[in-house]
Design a protein that fits this description.
The complex is a heterodimer of chains A (306) and B (261). In chain A, helix 7 links the parallel strand 11 and strand 12. Chain A is 28% helix and 19% strand. With 306 residues, chain A is an alpha/beta fold. Chain A has 2 domains: 220 residues, Glutaconate Coenzyme A-transferase; 37 residues, no CATH class. Chain B has 261 residues and is an alpha/beta fold. In chain B, 21% of the residues lie in helices and 18% in strands. In chain B, strand 12 and strand 13 form a beta hairpin. Classes of the chains: A alpha/beta (306), B alpha/beta (261). The interface between A and B is large, with 46 and 53 residues.
């Protein structure tokens, strides 16, 4: 029931709602894709699973890595990975990432967690680099595949710094708890992580959200500190209830340790991974939710201990 | 004489790291270093700030393992703020690398070649930044040549006292390596040119045993190396209170006594 613009006194209201499939249709082979969250916290897994279902290939993935990176590696989507770690926290070593690394199947650019932050910030500020001491004395500076440059302070101290290059993204994918149709996001987790910088480091950012509510219901006066970024940075919002599962979207739902074990076990053999895909990737969002135990099960997951 | 476990001896030895640090963030990775921060905070240096391992500072140290009661928090330790805080230098971490060498360089990224590793582990995490911005100490549950290696570690994640890697001929500003606690002894970097030096031996351990299990030559603090001090009654009582889940008993195989039988 679309309104005819000619007959309407007002332009069409801003509505950024999209499906996960529509988001993935905007992505292209060879793109550099930043994925928000951190290890097992607030990963846009519904969007990642949608990428797994697509024909996309040769992606450069930039991530504080968790199962997002592992799944993309297992599915052969990754050409290059920019990372400081890939971990499942309670299962410290990510088995699919390990397998890809040990097979020499992916190129890597390894940085420190803070350098990673610095690279996103440089991109967000449209700077080619930011100076730092991080990396000095380590093999980050000698790794093959990227030649770090040093930069000298122009002031009296004359100190030499590492020039951390901007981590420019083509697209950022993030997950938030709430949004309105216009892309005003609320991230109510105890730690907002670096999703704001991911959104700013890319010209295009898509967010999966657990709930889409009216602008009034965002109650911004009360929740201003939970807003992530101005909505001009958000290209599309995907209504994806439990879209971060099996990672957490605390405080609304927590990490699913039992499912994470199932996921870890899927690295045992190609057959195990094929089985995992059949139940948890190549299925509709509704079937995924049913196959992981349903909404009540996820809502009842205990808060994990770190 | 009081009975105590090797784990309890190690916790007390770890706690010494933060005794004279004043007011800063104390981070211990792994149960024993974490309990070391807790013990230091309650007995030696109440100004220390410790986190729950997730994103809050606890008013009291938060026990490892499951929560046994309500926790009072005193501050927010989200990653953005932790990075900013550690870049300012007010943190002292104790970490457990997979490999460690004579320079104090440490590795948690890969074993073997970086592009096609024999074993891919975590990645460098925050080690590079930690090593050049704030003090660091180390813990090794298995003191052997696989951990304390000959030559250099396979991928240097933490900078050490290695002149070949200095920029402008000087150690990185902020590089400050403190103590190394293992299942055999306590060491520091107090030898000539920051050589690793044994400062105390756990009861029943000899310098020769330590040297045989280390991939590089060690200095010694004295001909007669002191014994690592036994935990006091008060320290043992506090450790029991700070570790109600008895996680400390799971770190060493069969939870051996502190004094070898």
């Amino acid at each position: 029931m679309s309104q005819s613009p000619q007959n309407s006194p007002n332009p069409r209201p801003l509505d950024k709602r999209m499906s996960a499939a529509e988001v993935v249709a905007q992505l292209e082979d060879g793109m550099t894709i930043g994925i928000g969250g951190w290890a097992t916290r607030r990963k846009p897994m519904a969007l990642v699973r949608e990428i797994l279902k697509s024909d996309l290939k040769d992606l450069t993935i930039v991530s504080y890595g968790g199962p997002d990176v592992g799944m993309l590696c297992a599915a052969g989507k990754v050409k290059k990975l920019v990372f400081a770690f890939v971990s499942l926290d309670h299962y410290p070593l990510e088995p699919h990432f390990r397998a890809a690394r040990q097979a020499g199947a992916i190129e890597v650019f390894e940085v420190d967690e803070g350098l990673f932050h610095w690279g996103l910030r440089a991109a967000a500020m449209d700077l080619p680099f930011l100076p730092t001491r991080i990396g000095i004395g380590t093999d980050l500076l000698t790794q093959k595949g990227f030649e770090f440059k040093m930069v000298k302070s122009p002031y009296a101290d004359g100190e030499e710094f590492v020039a951390m290059p901007a981590l420019k993204l083509d697209v950022a994918l993030i997950h938030a708890q709430q949004s309105d149709e216009k892309g005003n996001l609320l991230v109510t987790s105890p730690d907002p992580l670096f999703d704001e910088l991911f959104a700013r480091a890319a010209p295009v950012c898509y967010a999966s959200v657990d709930r889409i509510v009216s602008t009034a219901d965002l109650d911004i006066e009360k929740n201003a500190r939970f807003t992530l970024v101005e909505r001009a940075r958000i290209t599309g919002v995907v209504h994806a209830p439990f879209g971060a599962h099996p990672t957490s979207s605390a405080p609304e739902y927590h990490l699913d340790l039992k499912h994470l074990k199932t996921y870890v076990d899927s690295a045992a053999s190609p057959e195990a991974w094929a089985d995992y895909r059949k139940s948890f990737v190549d299925v509709s969002a509704e079937d995924y939710l049913a196959n992981v135990g349903g909404a009540d099960t996820i809502n009842a997951l205990p808060r994990p201990v770190y | 004489m009081t009975d105590y476990s090797l784990a309890e001896l190690v916790i007390v030895a770890c706690a010494q790291a933060w005794k004279d640090d004043g007011e800063l963030m104390a981070t211990g990775i792994g149960p024993l270093p974490r309990l070391g921060t807790a013990l230091a905070k309650v007995l030696y240096n109440p100004a220390l700030q410790t986190t729950d391992g997730e994103c809050y500072y606890g008013d009291e140290p938060v026990p490892p393992g499951k929560r046994t009661g309500p926790v009072v928090y005193e501050g927010h330790a989200n990653y953005d703020r932790v990075f900013t805080a550690l870049w300012g230098g007010r943190r002292h971490a104790m970490v457990g690398p997979v490999q460690f060498d004579r320079f104090g360089q440490a590795n948690i990224s890969v074993i073997g070649d970086h592009q096609k590793p024999k074993s891919a582990m975590l990645g460098a995490r925050g080690f590079p930044g930690n090593s050049v911005t704030h003090p660091n100490s180390f813990f090794f549950p298995n003191h052997n040549k696989r951990a304390l290696v000959e030559g250099e570690v396979d991928f240097v994640c933490m900078a050490g006292y290695n002149p070949a890697r200095y920029v402008g001929g000087k150690p990185p500003k902020g590089l400050d390596l403190r103590i190394i606690v293992t299942n055999l002894c306590v060491m520091d970097f107090g030898g000539p040119d920051h050589q690793v030096r044994v400062v105390s031996l756990h009861p029943g351990v000899t310098f020769e045993e330590v040297q045989e299990n280390t991939g590089f030559p060690l200095a010694r603090i004295a001909d007669d190396i002191p014994t690592t001090p036994a935990p006091t009654e008060e320290e043992l009582a506090q450790i029991a209170r700070l570790d109600p889940n008895n996680v400390r008993a799971t770190v060493f195989k069969d939870n051996p006594p502190g004094v070898r039988s």
